[in-house]
Amino acid sequence: MLLQWLVNILTQSITGSFRQRLGITVAISVFISVQLVFALLLILEELPLHLLARLFGWSILIACCCWLLTWLSARRLILPLLQLGATIEQIQRGETLAIPQLSGRDEIAKLSRQFAELMTSWNRQQDELKTFNLILEEMIEERMVAVETINKKLKHEIIEREHIEQALQLANQELQRQSLEDGLTGIANRRCFDERLAQEWKRAIRTGHYLSILLLDVDYFKQYNDIYGHQQGDKCLQYVAQTLAESVQRPSDIVARYGGEEFVVILPETDIDGAKQVAERVRQRILALGIVHSAAENHTLSVSIGAATATAKMLMTPQKLLRTADNLLYQAKENGRNRVEVAMVTEFSRVTQT
Which of 249, 255, 322, 341 could cross-link to 328 by cystine, CB 3.0-4.6 Å? Predict the structure, then answer.
């Protein structure tokens, strides 16, 4: 039984709590020390067995008392630490922020007060941090509202600017159209004709294809204005321009008002026979309008046309082709009007076909 008790004591000294290990260690140390003293006395002088047994019992009692005192002291030391540990676990779980206040002047009480002061300072910093976070959130919200207001304003300004740019673009397109369009007839004007003639001439030089020009004039138009008035004369020009535009069939052909009652047609990649066919078709369709003109032959409005064709060369200019068409138009008027005069223009001569 004594052996089992010793085994239990050794087991507790290894696996027990801090208080148990400390108490058992102190008790064993005291017991061994007393036994050493008894052994020394036994060596120095012989003692009777009953006295030796009594001394042995006293040594056990002293060891037990030392163990009890050590256990109580360790308990007084350990319990506040355990209490602080439990409080720290509760703080970690968010259950409490209160630190138990321990009375006394020992190190444990001092440690408890310091820890309480630390938690108080930490709580104060947490409160300040929460207040700062609230202020920061309010500032961020105000900034977000200001930024959103600025974004809406910018978006509105961008939309307005886009509308203005679109209006300007449409206005520029309209100005461009008006700058290249005849206001009365709606077809291309003289400026547009000059630009397109230069472009087509360069293309004809590059490709080596024919380029033809029709120049036509309304017969006796001055007399028409004198008889029927300028408003009716404007309508007459509009009818002629519309009929002329409908008589050419290719998108590459250019119909323009050359000036007054004169009109001009550019026919890219068209030889002299093609130019003559188009000119005759135009003359016949305008005659077929049946516009009454008492000063004209047959009392019907007609046109005279000069058609010139050339193969563009570097030594020639488009103005030569245009002058030739103008001369042919004058020749058509000299020959009785309501007719087409056609010619092939070369670098050095002109061949006329009727």
Answer: 341
